[in-house]
Specification:
This protein folds into two domains: 2-45; 50-182, Immunoglobulin-like. Strand 3 and strand 4 form a beta hairpin. The protein has helices spanning 2-23, 41-47, 144-152, and strands spanning 54-65, 69-79, 86-97, 100-108, 121-123, 128-138, 157-168, 173-182. By secondary structure, the protein is an alpha+beta fold. It is elongated and about 85 Å long. Strands 3, 4, 5, 7 and 8 form a five-stranded antiparallel sheet that branches.
């Protein structure tokens, strides 16, 4: 009977230690795990500190404009500075022309537990990807000078928003975001 109690206690201690490693990846417990080629990648991923996603703006251009509708294409260059893959879930941004908010653009959607969206972008370690997104804007008639600037090609475009990305692995998953403001 005493051996059963000892086995249950040992199992309980192991479960508690594993729970601490999984739940508290930045708790300092990663100093007890050696980071070498024999360490499982899922454990390394759970114990690694995630560096912020690097973003560059590759510009916006007006693809087409009529009296009612304009299409603006925006390009972002995303770089993963980490040793593990990041999942780019969504870029959500507001479009400003000559300082006036005139629309919204979005790439992807927020991760909600199932990756059934085809717009999730796995960004592998130390790799870059250019995301090109088109936003369709509607002329509501409230800003004729802004619409005129779009039609004449003199519009100054500013993009302001947030990128949502994550690290989902078998042992851990963290959600992150990065705000941006590009001119």
């Amino acid at each position: 009977m005493d051996k059963k109690i000892l086995v249950y206690v040992a199992i309980g201690v192991l479960v508690a230690i594993l729970a601490l490693v999984v739940v508290l990846p930045n708790s300092g417990l990663n100093n007890f795990v050696s980071h070498n080629s024999n360490t499982p990648s899922a454990l390394t991923s759970a114990l690694s500190e995630v560096k912020p996603l690097e973003m560059n703006y590759n510009g916006s251009s007006v693809l087409s404009v009529t009296n009612r509708v304009a299409t603006i294409e925006t390009k972002f260059n995303l770089t993963n500075p980490n040793d593990d893959t990041l999942i780019i879930e969504m870029l959500s941004y507001d479009i400003y022309v000559n300082g006036v908010s005139i629309g919204h653009g979005q790439y992807g959607e927020k991760y909600e537990g199932a990756s059934d969206s085809s717009t999730y972008l796995p960004l592998t370690q130390h790799n870059s990807e250019i995301i090109t997104n088109q936003a369709q804007l509607t002329n509501d008639g409230n800003n004729p000078q802004i619409w005129s600037a779009l039609q004449s090609g003199t519009a100054q475009i500013r993009i302001n928003g947030t990128t949502y990305y994550s690290t989902h692995s078998p042992l851990a998953g963290q959600a992150y975001s990065k705000d941006f403001d590009f001119k």
